[in-house]
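Show me a record, fold above all:
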Amino acid sequence: MDRLQAVEIFVKVAELKSFSAAATALNLSRTLVSERVRDLEEDLGVRLLQRTTRRVGLTESGAAFLERVRVGLSALEEAAAEASSLSVEPRGLLRVNAALSFGFRHLAPAVGSFLERYPKVKVDLTLDDRQVDLIQEKVDIAIRIGELRDSTAIARKLATCRMLVCAAPLYLKRYGAPKRPPDLKNHTCCSYSLLQDGEDWQFVRGREKITVRIASRLRSNNGDAVAEAAASGAGIALQPDFIAGPLIKQGRLVEVLPGWRAAEYGVFALYPPTQFLPAKSRVFLNHLAEVFAKSPWL
């Protein structure tokens, strides 16, 4: 007996509540359908279907069996589709969305190397700092930093970014550097208006945790604008390492509050829930994981 075929026949009979209807749907003879179900019952040692002259119904054992095998058949179909996609060259249009600063600085170069690697894929890359609806706006993959708000999306972590408190050497020469987080209340601060924690800056040193509410003289919805303003001496800023890192290396910004760590956030790739991920999306996710494995902005 072909057990897989017998299970598929049983499922169809149970769904249609008829041997004749199942035989028609599967393009098999009614006799073969009846034999395969009977063989399956004998093999399992339990009656799965209750037959009468008017209808076919599930027994208690049959209902339990149906629920389990449906899951198995679905997983089998998904695995087959995924295996098939591995042999297909990725192609088609891939719609990607990311925050402006990260997208410009780090995602765009990664997209460039991806296109060279997969010549039959096209990318539509949109950059903005708002939260997009993946399904409504037909986005295949979105890059998000921080706590995830879309509970329906599937997320894959690509890297980690650390928030840095920094200021220009000129500012520190004029006003001095804060020695502890509460000292920030006596300093001019610049903040990113879309930061998840707002103007509550959080710090950790060992087991000690401190949250400081700062009063910003400058707020902007773009991280690069905040960083450049801070580098010009406008005040102390809390910035992700992928923005502040290069400016610190150039000497335009200096990290302050040594020994204290500000928040850390994950860099995630989000995509809509799906039974099977298209080849173009799968290889793009793998490519980003390779590129960002060592957090190249540090």
Residues 60-86 form the longest helix (27 residues).
